[in-house]
Write a structure and sequence with these properties.
Strand content: under 5%
Radius of gyration: 54 Å
Largest sheet: none
């Protein structure tokens, strides 16, 4: 699959050695085996490289804008000290160039002006960024697309390789196994001697049962007469 990587997508100033080092490292990590794997690896490498390039572009744009942003900022801060517009503009440009170059005198003068306005040194960088806001937004959108292409080719964190055809398996409803009722434990078998003794006892009791069945039932005693407490037996008393 070497033909896929014969022409790295580089622009002047970019290092082919660094690009191939990135390719080798990702190949060792992803271990591509099929043509699809190698194509995906190429997309990942190019996505990472493009995202890095756009970050460099962003930093370069800020650096290019820094001189103009510093000059504009210092020109506004010098308005109260230098009344002539042309002289103020020339002084601000000299101060900005010395500030960017890191010269001691210009750095002190610039910090004095910033401190008087309640600003810090980051104000120059912020002004440079603000001057290219539209360009930075376009670069951010391009970088997000490059990162999305990169992430699409990378395996998810913690994921395991799936066997071939795993995505074709139809999920089936899992039916729990039938519940088994607990068995009733059978009584231990009786011995032959115990069975014989039970039979003999039953046979011996048969005559007694027959005699009790033939015996006449005793009649219940007649109820005793109750005393006539009110003399009602012979009729109603006069």
């Amino acid at each position: 699959m070497a033909f896929l990587f014969e022409r790295p997508p580089l622009i002047p100033g970019e290092s082919e050695r660094e690009w191939r080092g990135l390719l080798t490292g990702l190949a060792d990590s992803l271990q591509p085996a099929t043509v699809v794997d190698w194509l995906r690896l190429r997309d990942v490498v190019n996505g990472i490289w493009e995202a890095l390039r756009l970050e460099r572009f962003r930093d370069t744009l800020i650096a290019l804008q820094r001189d103009q942003a510093a000059a504009d900022l210092f020109e506004g801060l010098l308005r109260s000290e230098i009344k002539d517009p042309d002289a103020r503009r020339a002084a601000a440009q000299l101060l900005a160039r010395g500030w960017i170059a890191g010269k001691v005198t210009e750095r002190r003068e610039g910090e004095r002006l910033l401190d008087r306005a309640g600003l810090r040194a980051e104000a120059v960088e912020a002004a440079a960024f603000l001057g290219q806001m539209d360009v930075h937004e376009r670069l951010d959108r391009m970088r997000r697309r490059a990162e999305a292409a990169r992430d699409a080719g990378l395996p998810a964190a913690g994921s395991q390789p799936q066997p071939a055809g795993a995505d074709l398996v139809i999920e089936a409803e899992v039916v729990p196994p039938p519940r088994r009722l607990p068995r009733r434990q059978a009584s231990p078998p009786a011995s032959i001697e115990a069975v014989a003794e039970a039979v003999d006892a039953t046979a011996a009791d048969e005559p007694a049962k027959a005699k009790r069945a033939k015996a006449p039932r005793a009649e219940a005693p007649a109820p005793e007469p109750q005393p006539d407490l009110f003399g009602m037996a012979g009729g109603v008393a006069a």
